[in-house]
Amino acid sequence: TATSAPSGSQVTVILQVGSNGYVRGDDTQRYIYQPETNYCTLDVLKIGERRRYVILMRFDLSAIPANAAILRSTLSLYSTGWGGAEIPLDVFRLLRPVTFCEATWNRASSTTPWGTVGCENTSTDRDSVPMTTITTSGLNKWHAFDLTNVTQSWVDRTLPNYGVALQQGYPAANSGYYFASSQHSNQGLRPKLEITYRTR
Hints:
Layout: E1 10-15, E2 25-31, E3 44-48, E4 53-59, E5 68-82, E6 88-93, E7 132-135, E8 142-146, H1 148-156, E9 164-168, E10 176-180, E11 192-199
Antiparallel strand pairs: 1-11, 2-4, 3-10, 4-9, 5-8, 5-10, 5-11, 6-7, 6-9
């Protein structure tokens, strides 16, 4: 349920599966060479290797009231492994509904193909321009992505919250990175979205 707070109050909420009653976190990876395989139960998610691996992720924002003015929204992923080189990572807004435990390289759900395989159609699958870009910076640490602007649009419902696609940026080094998933055995390492907002 939406957090109740007096008008003008500043509130910080951390959405992380298994913490403070938050149970709905969707994520999966997709792999070009197993195009009909779904990976939503993996302990860790892989990204990179010249964009052969891509991560999809979505957070349930029903705990955030519709009158919230988003001051900051940060997606944090914990790195658990790598292929030996740092890589750039882009975050794109998804443009269509995704069934996370059915999504594959070829399909957004068991019955709906991507506009272009790999979630590459920038009219129907994802935005053409990333919302944020970082470069990885080591293992066993958190990597942060700024999602403030899009979170505001999701909360206002001016844009539908279908989630995000995380993809290796260019230059496309032949290296992969691993991040703890929402299924990870260590609850404290699971993906988290920290939102600070002020009620209006």
